[in-house]
Amino acid sequence: MMKGSFPVERFQGMRTPFYYYDIKLLRRTLDALESALSQSPDFHVHYAVKANFNPDILNEIAARGLGADCVSGGEISAALAAGFRPEGIVFAGVGKSDEEITTALNAGIARFNCESIPELEVINEIAGQLGKRAAVSVRVNPDVGAHTHANITTGLKENKFGINYEQLPEVLNTACKLPNLEFKGLHFHIGSQILEMQDFVALCNRINELYPELTKAGFKVVDINVGGGLGINYQHPNHLSIPDFELYFDTFRKHLKLPVGTQVHFELGRSIVAQCGSLITRVLYVKKGTTKTFAIVDGSMTELIRPALYKAYHRIENITSDEPEEVYDVVGPVCESSDVFLKEASIDRCHRGDLLAIRSAGAYGEAMASCYNCHPLPQSFIDR
Predict the structure, then answer these.
(1) Which of 102, 113, 77, 60 is nearest to 267 (CA)?
(2) DSSP structure class, residue 340
(3) Closest residue by Cα to residue 275 from 6, 32, 17, 23
(4) Which residues have C-beta within 8 Å of that of residue 36, sequence separation ≥ 6?
């Protein structure tokens, strides 16, 4: 099978497992994103910091002038340190602490995306104590299902996110009446790793229904945040390494019916960084069972939890072997039966010491790493 290009000779001396980041691919991805955005001056992208907050990655993205979508005070601090402008930072999440709200207000961020009346009241109180006024958007639960894993859908009534339709008038009235808040717009997000544009069409239709109802009721909606969710092709990272940003933005251009000049915000994460990253792990043992052959590697769910958490697929390549392919279950050393990267993986014959690249791991890989079993957090290799 076709394999990616890796500077294997430069990996000598690196402690495995580690994350490899192809900055040249990241830059090409950002070029494609900028090109697709150039047709719509009213479209604005905020990078979802939760996808990957490696400082080198953040620095590259901030240098392009994108905004930042943050879901914690720590992410706000990381974004500011990387050079993201405060006026391009939006702060989302169902459980913002008082300390995080204070950090955001003192930094002068652009927007709080709010998800409940109690949250609005707390932000109003803290803003008053600081002598500030907080710009807020209200996150609406559009009850739109996305064709993705159940654990990463976020727009259904049973999800913890957002305000359900029937609650919206009361919440908006509260947002508009509290003295230290300035209501600005609506925020939506239906899920992650979405590849079917029809899901985004359904979101557009919901917004098209809701917008005139709210304006008729007297609510001034300055802008709309449609969230993110654009997926990538995990099966073919070498052939399809950059998502179709043109198709994505064109879907909203065609189907979102808003007054001319309405600003539309997007929160993309995975589609920007996923394919530039790979987890490099070393084969410890090749174990032949009665029905399976296992490639036991030193990487595990502590470095890349997505396969254990979502049964997520990542293509695996043996980057130090050109021998004929064989079938392996690629597994890690953690004492959990779910510590499996891929079952029945067809990869070049493995030997002890071979390096495997677990592809498309630049999003929700290093960012979700843990120290379970006292494993150290992975290092990173930045290839410019």
Answers:
(1) 113
(2) E
(3) 23
(4) 245, 246, 248, 249
Tell me the HSE value of 277 on the side-chain side, using a 13 A CA sphere: 29
Residues 272/304, Cβ–Cβ less than 8 Å: no
Distance CA 177, CA 197 (A): 37
* pLDDT for the residue numbered 143: 77
Which residues, including other chains, have CB under 8 Å from residue 88's CB and lie 6 or more apart?
A: 44, 46, 65, 66, 67, 68, 110
Per-residue pLDDT band for 142 (boundaries 50, 70, 90) equals confident
304-343 residue pLDDT tens? 999 999 999 999 999 999 999 999 999 999 999 999 999 9
Question: Would you state the structure tokens that stand for residue 98, as one six-digit string?
Answer: 């008082």
| Tens digits of residue pLDDT in 85-131 | 999 999 999 999 999 999 999 999 999 999 999 999 999 999 999 99
Amino acid at 61: I
The rounded distance, in Å, linking the Cα atoms of 31 and 19 is: 23
